[in-house]
Design a protein that fits this description.
- GO terms for molecular function: hydrolase activity.
- InterPro entries: Alkaline_phosphatase_core_sf (IPR017850), STM4013-like (IPR047838), Sulfatase_N (IPR000917).
- This is STM4013/SEN3800 family hydrolase.
- The protein is an alpha/beta fold.
- It has 8 helices and 12 strands.
- The strands form 3 sheets. An 8-stranded mixed sheet has the order 3-2-12-9-1-8-6-7, sandwiched between helices.
- The longest helix has 22 residues.
Length: 271
């Protein structure tokens, strides 16, 4: 990361509530081609979430605790606050003297921009301002939220606008919290109904919807210079697994998440 910071733009995308098993299945079946072409080896990495719901997980992620590889560690981190005794700070770790890496990047002359999705980013009350408040610039509209069938398209359009308005020399850290997978997601599957509700199948359909538009986001993020991208889930969610539904609970479907990081080359960015 010390070779990235200061030279590349950085994109962090959290696919809110995305289950690891669904992400892996869709990649293997060729149902998310725009994401899969960027995954190292065409596969998601299996990791453990740092929290079981959005607020807790994002607090940890912004503090440098991205989802942890699902195998014995220790595992060197990409970002870490400067503190004595850290066993996961390595030579390649970007170390900062602030509480989280958002302001750490701002100190390195990055423009930090949040495009929110779920309610913890809606800036509609004190709790909804905590996470967006870490950024120099934060965007949220109802059309970005969980109830909009077109939420991700709307978020991508705002990202394109943000990038277009930046001076060419200004480095960017862009964060997008994608709400489309979060309940309710039944409207992403043709033939599904509000009465039948959300299922693992509608969750998968929401990921396919995201994949249809994520190429535009990647293209915008890498339109000015090479971009380092992190795409992951913040936590999964249960659809009746062992009797559990939802998240903020300790089930495998919640704690196990897909993760990938990769570079986006402007010459290769899909248009």
């Amino acid at each position: 990361m010390n070779e990235v910071v200061g030279h590349h733009d950085i994109l962090l995308v959290t696919l809110d509530t995305l289950r690891h098993d669904v992400a892996v299945e869709l990649a293997a079946e060729g149902r998310i081609p725009n994401l899969a072409r960027h995954l190292p080896g065409g596969r998601w990495e299996k990791r453990h979430a740092p929290g079981s719901f959005t607020y807790a997980s994002h607090q940890a992620i912004f503090a440098g605790f991205l989802p942890t590889p699902a195998e014995p560690g220790p595992h060197p981190r990409l970002f870490a606050a400067s503190f004595a005794g850290s066993e996961t700070t390595a030579d390649g770790t970007f170390v900062y003297d602030t509480p989280e890496f958002v302001s750490g990047l701002a100190q390195r002359d990055y423009r930090t921009v949040c495009i929110g999705g779920v309610g913890f980013f809606n800036q509609q009350g004190p709790l909804g301002t905590v996470l967006p408040g870490l950024f120099q610039e934060a965007h949220w509209e109802r059309e970005f939220g969980v109830t909009s069938p077109h939420s991700f398209e709307n978020q991508v359009a705002r990202a394109e606008q943000v990038v277009a308005e930046l001076p060419a020399e200004q480095r960017l850290f862009l964060f997008v919290n994608v709400s489309a997978l979060h309940q309710p997601n039944w409207f992403h599957l043709p033939g599904a109904t509000r009465e039948a509700g959300d299922t693992r199948e509608t969750h998968a359909a929401a990921l396919e919807y995201i994949d249809r538009h994520i190429g535009r986001l990647f293209a915008a993020a890498s339109s000015r210079r090479r971009c380092f991208a992190i795409v992951c889930s913040d936590h999964g969610t249960a659809y009746g697994d062992d009797g559990y539904t939802g998240h903020r609970l300790g089930h495998e479907s919640v704690w196990t998440v897909p993760y990938a990081h990769f570079f986006l080359d402007p010459a290769k960015a899909p248009r």
